[in-house]
C-alpha cells in the first residue's frame, strides 16, 4: 500500500481592503491582508495547517507588515476591523519610496527621482 503525503506552504489573500495614508511613502493607498501557512497533505487533500501568519501590504509602495495573530484571525473570520498605524509596527519589508535609493547592481546611493543608476546604468525600482 502506498501513502502519498507531503508538506507544503500556502498563501491566501483575505477579503479585506482598507484605504489610508501610507506611513512610508505618504500617499493615499490601499491595505490588503493575506495569510501564509504550512500544511500537511494526505492523498493530495490538505489535512491540517500550522505556522499561520498574517500580513498587510500597502498597494502604493509595496511595504509589508506582520499583523498580530488575534487581529489576523478576526479579519479571516470576516469581522469588521480597522487597522491603525499602531497595528502596522512590525515591518517585514519597507519600500525605499520616501528616501534615497540604492542600486541593486552596484550599491550606489541615488536620489529618489532617478530612474537609472548614474554609476552603472542599471534601472532602479
Could you provide a short overview of the structure?
The protein is mainly β and 125 residues long. Helices cover 7% and strands 45% of the residues. It is flat, with a radius of gyration of 19 Å.
List the helices and strands and how they pair.
Elements: E1 5-21, E2 28-42, E3 45-58, E4 64-66, H1 69-77, E5 91-93, E6 101-102, E7 109-110
Antiparallel strand pairs: 1-2, 2-3, 3-4, 4-5, 6-7
Structure characteristics:
single chain; two-stranded antiparallel ribbon; five-stranded antiparallel beta sheet; 45% strand; mainly beta; 125 residues; 1 helix
Describe the 3D structure.
The chain has 125 residues and is mainly beta. Helices cover 7% and strands 45% of the residues. It has one helix at residues 69-77, and strands spanning 5-21, 28-42, 45-58, 64-66, 91-93, 101-102, 109-110. Strands 1-2-3-4-5 form a 5-stranded antiparallel sheet, covered by helices on one side. Strands 6-7 form a two-stranded antiparallel ribbon. Strand 1 (5-21) and strand 2 form a beta hairpin. The termini are far apart.
Q: Whole-number radius of gyration?
A: 19 Å
Q: What is the 3D shape?
A: flat
Mean of residue pLDDT values: 85
Total number of helical segments?
A: 1
Main sheet: strands, sense, barrel: 5 strands, antiparallel
Stretches where pLDDT is under 50 for at least 5 consecutive residues are none
- Helix % is under 10%
Strand order within the widest beta sheet: 1-2-3-4-5
Instruction: Give the N-to-C terminal Cα separation.
Output: 53 Å
Tell me the series of helices and strands, N- to C-terminal: EEEEHEEE
Taken as a percent bin, the fraction of beta residues is: 35-45%
Task: Please give the number of β-strands.
Answer: 7
Oligomer classification: single chain
The helix-and-strand class reads: mainly beta
